[in-house]
Amino acid sequence: MSVRVGILGATGAVGQRFVQLLDDHPTFELAALTASPSSAGRRYREAAKWRVNSPIPDDVADMEVVATEPNAIADDDVDLVFSSLPSGVAADVEPAFLEAGYVVSSNSSNDRMAEDVPLTIPEINPDHLGLIEVQRDERGWDGALVKNPNCSTITMVPTLAALDRFGIETVHVSTLQAVSGAGYSGVTSMEILDNAIPHIGGEEDKMETESRKLLGEFDGASVSLHGADVAASCNRIPTLDGHLENVFAKLATDPDPAEVRDAMREFEGADLHSSPDELIKVFGENDRNRPQPRLDRGYAGGMGIVAGGVERTTEGIQYNCLAHNTIRGAAGASLLNGELLVTEGYV
Ligand code: NAP
Prior knowledge:
By secondary structure, the protein is of the alpha/beta class. Helix content is 27%, strand content 24%. The protein has helices at residues 13-22, 44-47, 58-61, 87-99, 131-139, 151-163, 189-192, 203-214, 257-265, 327-343; strands at 3-8, 28-35, 65-67, 80-83, 103-106, 144-147, 168-177, 197-198, 217-218, 223-224, 229-236, 242-251, 280-282, 305-312, 316-324. The protein binds NADP nicotinamide-adenine-dinucleotide phosphate.
């Protein structure tokens, strides 16, 4: 089966990752690329300032970039679009695609916490896709909107899902985040070289709210937020693509570190093309060991989560986790949601 797909915001940091990840995909065939009015009408190789570490696929380089509106892709026979637009633009544009009947798998932060919008990690809460029926009833569109979480949230939440059996009461997390998370023009070299920037505006709130929705229960009509309190401190460091996070969880029970590592290892990938066999790669039988892969590489081609340094604290457990910002944290996460939408029959 082949599904024709488009990318909204195809020339940006996340859009380029979509192009890379869709190359030779067994189900998805890339049929449309959109961007801002200044890129529309140009060939992709001219419009995109290509920064990804593999060449632009030959069949994509000469595709024409079109305007980001449903009419511009109406003749391309596309069923599913991946969205990597700035959230202010997405808030205006995504509803137009949904009303035109497209299924939209979106990275943008608008509507992530809307009650009728699934915020989904396929390995963690695939059942939340059921909100699509609620959304269609309430909004009256034939399309479907699915969001993936913010990049720092998706790095931590799979590890929290593993801890949930021990009773999570509160979570404190401190992050060291890559510059790609701010987009290509987001942080200047003068600001970040030989520096670390404390506090990423808006990021902390996203971690504190989105994680509770992702871990919440779907009862067929709505998602109830998980009861744990989450407090985040988010910081920018001069690395390209790795997000490293230090998590301190207060638990209702007292597991030893070996039990926590086993719980994290038990998570299998979803039965989807782009899901790794092992969702969380756990390092360090010795509690002092730290996550091993380099910050710029992640694990399993950037689709896996790495965890390590599991230790007891006076109130619970502390550990580190790491993920690739523009793959598991952005385009790869949307791609997985697209694969889930296909297997669940929404596309
Ligand atoms: P980016 O590099 O700035 O790219 C933005 C894309 O949107 C470009 O293709 C741009 O086209 C297009 N665009 C801008 N204004 C537009 C307009 N008015 N109409 C139509 N298209 C427009 O941004 P990014 O880093 O890829 O982020 C994209 C989205 O993903 C954001 O919502 C961000 O919050 C989210 N996200 C990003 C990351 C990350 O790691 N970067 C992680 C998770 C989520 P032109 O090239 O023509 O300007």
